[in-house]
Amino acid sequence: MQTITVRGGQRLCGEVIIHGAKNSALPLLAATLLVHGISEIHNCPHLSDVRASMAILRHLGCRVTRQEDTVTVDATAPIGSDIPDELMREMRSSIVFLGAIIARCGEATMSYPGGCELGPRPIDLHLAALRRLGVTVEERHGHICCRAENGLHGAEITLAFPSVGATENVLLAACMAQGTTVLRHAAREPEIQDLCAYLNACGARIHSTEAGVLTIEGVPHLHGCAHRVMPDRIEAATYLAAAAATGGELTLRRCCAEDTSPVFPALEESGCVIRAVASGDGLQTLSVKAPARLRPLGTVRTMPYPGFPTDAAAPLLAAACVADGTSVFVESIFENRYKYVDELARMGARIRVDGRVAVVEGVPALQGASVACTDLRGGAALIVAALAAAGQTTVCELKHLDRGYADLTDSLRAVGADIRRE
Ligand code: UD1
User: Fold this and answer.
1) Ligand 1: does its nearest atom lie under 6 Å from the Cβ of 125?
2) What sign for the dihedral angle of Cα 167, 168, 174, 175?
């Protein structure tokens, strides 16, 4: 069993390079299925979820190669329409392949992405939207069997909630449908914009004239292109939290300041000073300087973009554990996102959870302990807490962290953390 061991209490200082966004790379890889040709996806992070997406593409009949940060997908040959259970289980977000496979094959069969670490993750919104586009859906023995008997056709769709995954599935299914689709109350996350940019570069016609409304004019054919995955705003937020928790001073290169900005107010409330400087490549360098002791973070309420991202709440909550006062976190997106709180309690954190609310009473210092990752972002919270804690922390169940953080231990060691993986 692999573990990460951290001797906490080092002030982080130096530079970190932010990778391509996991939550963008996965739908982009699914989208390459629509292209009768070759897609080059640059800045693709080395993560287990990316490897799982590549395995699904290969299973479906694509030629997939990786050279350093570039994944090349050749989807010219006819592709299969089913994803076996074991590949679906590898990665819970594999549901975004549904829209892409239906668009390409007119049918798709996959297993239901059942319950998960954040609570139930239903797909009713995905399926209702696909039905509007002409898909019949049968659910049999935990499998979803979809078929577009008469092809996909454009439709007017309003999502009951701006689900990221449902928006992605509609985009993928609608961009080669007959006619025009108007999707209202669509997710506005930057990863959606990145997917639209890739699809439009392949010849799709997607535009947004007002916030939360996407118009998708179906086109008969998409061609290959090269696309660079946007920076990972959650990885950036995690390093900001690590700097905050250790009274550190970090420079984060290759960020998008605007995408990351929903987490700035809470960190600024705690006394951190954050600056963004253009780096000439269309991106920004973020610098953060944290006070020796954080003030409380106020009330952090997770919301769809441009609200505070649910994925960044756990690492910031870990920083709030060592603030001088009480911070409050309200989770509005997922039902069960506080499993990691019990692990933080082993390190001496004082947190009370009531449903979707966590009240964090800062303590003067956390103590190192033996802890286990319960989920991806909860795992990141444990690392942030370990960096701030006195003494040694051992973190296990690293498979969760490997889904979403590339080069984590090396990057932290380079900025002064006493951290090793073995
Ligand atoms: C994506 C991200 C995830 C992030 C989340 C919210 C990826 C791979 N994952 O997840 O990291 O935390 O966006 O920003 O990009 N819901 C339904 N029915 C549905 C679909 C969703 O009730 O059919 C509910 C979910 O249970 C949840 C909420 O809507 O409570 C948000 O889900 P959604 O935006 O779809 O998140 P994901 O796409 O799963």
Assistant:
1) yes
2) positive
Mapped to the 3 state alphabet, what secondary structure does 119-152 carry? Answer: ECCCCHHHHHHHHHCCCEEEEECCEEEEECCCCC
pLDDT in tens, 129-183: 999 999 999 988 878 999 999 999 999 999 999 999 999 999 999 999 999 999 9
* Cα dist from 325 to 108, 293, 359, 364, 383, whole Å: 52, 10, 11, 10, 21
Helix runs in 272-396, H state only: 310-320, 341-346, 376-388
Q: Which atom of ligand 1 is nearest to the CA of 305?
A: 14
C-alpha 123 – ligand 1 centre gap (Å): 9
Is any atom of ligand 1 closer than 6 Å to the C-beta of 163? Answer: yes
Centre of ligand 1 from the C-alpha of residue 119, in Å: 11
Cβ-contact 96, 130 below 8 angstroms = no
Which pair of tokens denotes residue 342? 């019990």
Distance from C-alpha of 87 to C-alpha of 330, rounded to nearest angstrom = 33
> From ligand 1's centre to the CA of 260, what distance in Å?
19
What tokens were used for 82?
């089913």
Give the chain's mean pLDDT. Answer: 96
pLDDT value at 114 more than 80: no
How many angstroms separate the CA atoms of 320 and 219, rounded? Answer: 49
Q: Is 116 a catalytic residue?
A: yes
User: What type of residue sits at position 358?
Assistant: A
How far apart CA 97 and CA 185 sit, in angstroms, is: 21
Identity of residue 71 = V
User: Which atom, in ligand 1's list, is nearest to the CA of 333?
Assistant: 30
124 CB near ligand 1 (under 6 Å): yes
Alpha-carbon distance of 184 to 20, in angstroms, equals 28
Query: Which amino acid, 411?
Result: S
**pTM for the whole structure:** 0.97
Ligand 1: residue whose CA is nearest its atom 32 = 163
Residue 308 DSSP code? B
CA distance 195 to 192: 5
Q: Which of 44, 62, 116, 272 is catalytic?
A: 116
Q: What is the pLDDT of residues 184-221, one digit of tens each?
A: 999 999 999 999 999 999 999 999 989 999 999 999 99
User: How remote is the CA of residue 342 from the centroid of ligand 1, in Å?
Assistant: 24
Nearest Cα residue to atom 38 of ligand 1: 165
